Amino acid sequence: MQDTSSSVVHHQDYLNLGNDQALCGVAFEKSARLGQTIRPVAVCPDCEAKLAEYHLIWWRERAEAATAELDGLRVKYRELSEYVDNQRRQVAGLQHLAPIIGDPSGENPESHRENDGEPQADSTGEPGETTPTSLLDQARKELLELCRRFDETVPYWRVKNTTDAFSDKLKSDQRLLLAHEIGADGNFIRWCIREIEGLGLQVTNSPVHGDANDMMDAWTQDFYQPPKKTKRRLGRSRSYDGG
After folding, report:
1. Cβ–Cβ under 8 Å, residues 10 and 44
2. 139/218 same-domain check
3. What are phi and psi of 97, to 5 degrees?
4. HSE of 208 in the Cβ direction (CA atoms, 13 Å)?
5. Distance (Å, whole) CA 200 – CA 213
6. Which of 60, 82, 104 is the last residue of a domain?
7. Where are the annotated segments for Disordered (predicted)?
8. CA-CA distance, 118 to 116, in Å (whole number)?
């Protein structure tokens, strides 16, 4: 930029763009910005000397901000990791205490025989009916509800819609916790497909197992199949004689 009364071109104060002032400290009375196609005749040497210093300050501020954000994420990740470990230890402790609580010592043997002859409500319940204790347990419950609608195969797009809807309900820290629970793989859709296959079902048109282009063609064909033509059954035409 330059003052309209001078031919010398100055660098603007990049760190304080609101100030109508050059890097060298010169204040403009009537400033004008130069177009990118205009080549300046003379550049202020004082501005040129401070240009590298200003660039250094600008990059340092952004590097410090990025470092502070990274440190905050590391602390958050450490807290989430400790939370997951504590949850796992609590679940393991409850599973260890469950047989002891369900069969206390000194109980009447007759009650044992009565209880053995009657089905327990908990034993008949399905695993999906229990209250989920982690994000993966919640995902398993929704996958189980999805698989109940199908006999042998589950369309990939139904699995994709279910995983997208589940992820949309999570916050940023919950998504980070979910990735930690999945483990080294870290791919939620691939984990869901393995869970479905573990239930004895197959996921059709899955790009995880096949060529992505072939799977997309098959998927598109399922969506845009032309409607089947209905066959009209024509009866014999009646002939009417004049006699």
Report:
1. yes
2. yes
3. -85, -20
4. 18
5. 26
6. 82
7. 99-134
8. 6
Yes or no: say if 83 and 91 are a contact pair by the CB < 8 Å rule: no
Q: In whole angstroms, what is the distance from residue 211 CA to residue 207 CA?
A: 6
Burial class of residue 80 in the structure, from the number of CB atoms within 10 Å of its CB (0-12 exposed, 13-18 middle, 19+ buried):
middle
| Residue 38 included in any domain | yes
Q: How far apart are CA 152 and CA 114, in angstroms?
A: 39
Helix intervals (H) in the chain = 45-102, 109-117, 121-124, 135-147, 156-168, 172-182, 188-198, 212-223
> Residue 43 sits in which domain range?
8-82
Asked, for residue 101, whether it belongs to a domain, the answer is no
Q: Which residue has the tokens 């501020």?
A: 61
The single-letter code of the amino acid at 202 is: Q
**Whose structure tokens read 């130069």?**
34
pTM for the model stands at: 0.34
Q: Which two tokens stand for residue 48?
A: 């040129």
| 2, 34 Cβ separation under 8 angstroms | yes
Q: Residue 13 and residue 23: Cα distance in Å, rounded?
A: 5
**Tens-level pLDDT at each residue, the chain (243 residues):** 666 666 678 877 777 766 677 878 787 776 667 666 566 667 888 888 888 888 888 889 999 999 999 999 999 999 999 999 888 888 877 776 666 555 544 445 444 444 554 444 444 445 445 555 788 888 889 888 899 888 888 998 898 899 889 888 888 888 888 888 887 665 788 888 888 888 888 888 877 654 445 444 544 454 444 555 555 555 554 544 444
How many domains does one find in the chain?
2
- What tokens appear for 66 in the block? 């990025």
Token representation of residue 217: 């063609």
